[in-house]
Amino acid sequence: MSNMFDANKIKKDFPILNDPKFNEGLVYLDNAATSQKPQQVINAVSDYYSHHNANVHRGIYELSERATNMYEDSRAKVAKFISAKHPEEIIFTKGVTESINRVAFCWVIQHVKAGDMIMAMESDHHSNLIPWQQVAERTGAKLEVLQVDEKGEISLEQIKQKFDELAGKIKIVAISHASNVLGTIFPVKEICKLAKEAGAVVSVDGAQAIPHMKVNVESLGCDFYSFSGHKMLAPTGIGVLWERKELLQEMIPYEYGGGMIGEVKTHTSTWGEIPQRFEAGTPNIEGAVGLSAAIDYLEGIGMENVRKHEIELTTYALEKLGEIEGLTILGPQEAEKRSGLVSFIIKKIHPHDIAAILSQKGIAVRSGQHCTMPLHDRLGISASVRASFYIYNTKEDVDKLIHELKEAKKLLS
Ligand code: PMP
Questions:
Q1: How far, CA to CA in Å, does 329 sit from each of 180, 230, 402?
Q2: What is the pLDDT of residues 205-218, one digit of tens each?
Q3: Strand pairing partners for 328?
């Protein structure tokens, strides 16, 4: 790892992690839900409101032009960050949930009919399952679900077999890049290749991948890629839908109103250029500005260093958690196959009890089903505990988690 990477130094940039209100310090291990924000992002949003605030794409006065430039610069920065060919392929949304719903209801619903197949993953977040259930219900298409094996991985052989069986019928494959519970990084590039051969387009939920690793949408070969800013240091309420340009032309607008029109008559209207056509109304300008600052921050560290740090922490966490008797880790056992999170259960102890006790010690972990009820059903468990890491977490944080877990276990057994 680069000698420049120092999680303790990074931690200093995050006011909430240094808040004296947390007497023993806050060990924040719920990064898969949302990340904390560095001062640089907070400053960027504050600076925008203090010095540059105006509505975008409307005024011809200097301030409005400046706000428009900041908003559009963010779009260009996002495009470069994910190696998209064109900035206009970036549509700002409020997050992954909205992005996937747009794919489902503005593109897919027009391209599937009764008898067609939609392929999704049973282990995925509800945001990447329920929209597909709804499209199937409304169109008469059939929803087919891929299942993970006992290691939490997906077999390309199983997928190929399904594609061969259903050749010509599958119209869309909706997968996640990384699971928010198992941590598994799925072989998206290989799945895209198989899907292309089967004549299907691929939509990827990148919520748990983009914050943690370098993603190149072009080399993945997918058609739609969704992610949320708030999991990658940016404010809440800003997200991204990337779509291949050819598909954008076929997409119907999601909302109608100001900012997205060409010409409006009393009874008919035409639509404006892409991407404005897909961003009706006043957008989340400060969110885009914050996202731009978040990308600067992450690129300053280097995404390859982010990934290396998380592999190191996850390897350590897997080893230490594995030593606790009665604890079962969900998902692959090798850190390289995972994003930086570990979910687990402890025999005879409810995950909520564990999380509540850890909370008293200043440790924030998530307990519950993490918006993946079908996955928990398949695993035969009612809930799990999830510890998820990011750039400011250290081995000492993992040590504290392990120590307090052992104490909680003594108390609850
Ligand atoms: N997909 C995955 C894999 C996620 O982890 C999440 C957030 N927990 C989402 C989708 C939904 O993201 P958002 O709430 O930002 O729309």
A1: 14, 26, 14
A2: 999 999 999 999 99
A3: 345
pTM of the model: 0.97
Catalytic residue list contains 106: no
Residue 210 shares a structural domain with residue 273:
yes
Looking at the structure, tell me whether residues 249 and 379 fall in a common domain: no
281 domain-assigned:
yes
Q: How far, in Å, CA of 229 to CA of 392, rounded? A: 17
Q: Per the residue annotation, which of 106, 192, 222, 371 is the catalytic one?
A: 371
Chain centroid, CA 76 distance in Å: 20
Question: Which residue among 99, 127, 227 is best mutated to probe the pocket of ligand 1, counting the most ligand atoms within 8 A of its Cβ?
Answer: 127
Q: Which atom of ligand 1 is nearest to the CA of 239?
A: 15
The residue segments making up the domain with residue 84 are: 43-299
Q: Is residue 38 part of a domain?
A: no
Per-residue pLDDT tens over the stretch 246-298: 999 899 999 999 999 999 999 999 999 999 999 999 999 999 999 999 999 99
Q: Residues 62-119: pLDDT tens digits?
A: 999 999 999 999 999 999 999 999 999 999 999 999 999 999 999 999 999 999 999 9
Which CATH number fits the domain that encloses residue 341? 3.90.1150.10
Residue that finishes a domain, picked among 244, 275, 299: 299
Amino acid at 350: H
Q: Which residue bears the tokens 């930086």? A: 340
Q: Between β-strands 363-364 and 27-28, what pairing exists: parallel, antiparallel or unpaired?
A: parallel
Specify the number of domains making up the chain.
Answer: 2
- List, chain by chain if needed, residues with CB within 6 Å of any ligand 1 atom: 32-33, 95-97, 125, 127-128, 176, 180, 205, 207-208, 228, 371
What angle, 0 to 180 degrees and rounded to 10, lies between the N-to-C axes of helices 62-81 and 285-301?
Answer: 40
